[in-house]
Amino acid sequence: MTALLWAGAAGALLFNAVFLADGLTRPGYDPVRQPVSALALGSRGWLQTTNFIVCGLLVTAGAGAVPAVFDSLLLAGAVGALGLALVASGGFAMDPMRGYPPGTPDRAPEELSRSHRIHDAAGAVVFTLLPGTALVAAFVLADPAWKWASGIVCAAAAVGAGVFGQAWENDSRYAGLVQRATILLGLVWLGVLFTHGAVR
């Protein structure tokens, strides 16, 4: 069980590290405006695609240890679904748009591909479960400190997901920044929870 928890922690935390480093070093990419998913496009797109799939699988594997360690099938299901949604996000790329990859028109295409629509659906699951998993944890975890921390993360991630949705629809220059902050919050919390379970 401990190995599965460490796998989950690695997946949650490594996902953040890879998209942050790749976004800051990718030529022609604006991490403040453009979403994490756009990193799966272009000549270096394989890196973010791999990040989605490998880290999603690690999070899903970590979910297998949750019932025994945290005594909650509901929490395990939420974590596992989050991991699988990350995998699906990697399996179906978004369409080029809004200036990335370089040379792409600075707008959204009039018609979206099937891959983009599936990617959007998987992303909606991710951004529902980032606060949703923390909400479940706030109810099922026994430690009062973890209950409060999980509740705070839930509220903040829910606000972040809502703000990102509006920012993306309005093509805000800060959409990527809001998205990154929300993902970081949710996955750092999850990585720390996995680590807590592994060392307690």
Describe the structure.
With 200 residues, the chain is mostly helical. The chain has a single domain (2-102, 113-199), classed as Rhopdopsin 7-helix transmembrane proteins (Up-down Bundle). The chain is built from 7 helices and no strands. The chain has helices spanning 2-25, 45-63, 66-70, 73-91, 114-140, 144-169, 175-199. Helix 1 (2-25) packs antiparallel against helix 7. The longest helix is centred in the middle third of the chain and has 27 residues, at 114-140. The radius of gyration is 17 Å and the shape is globular. The model has no long low-confidence stretch (mean pLDDT 97).
As residue ranges, the low-confidence spans are none
- Describe the largest sheet: none
Broad CATH class: Mainly Alpha
Query: What order do the helices and strands follow?
Result: HHHHHHH
Number of domains: 1
CATH topology group:
Rhopdopsin 7-helix transmembrane proteins
Mean pLDDT: 97
Backbone structural class: mainly alpha
* Strands, total number: 0
Q: Tell me, briefly, the overall form.
A: globular
- Proportion of β residues? under 5%
Number of helices: 7
Q: How large is the radius of gyration?
A: 17 Å
CATH architectural category: Up-down Bundle
Helical content, roughly? over 70%
Q: How far apart are the termini? A: 12 Å
Protein name: DUF998 domain-containing protein
Organism: Nocardiopsis terrae
Keywords: Membrane, Transmembrane, Transmembrane helix
InterPro entries: DUF998
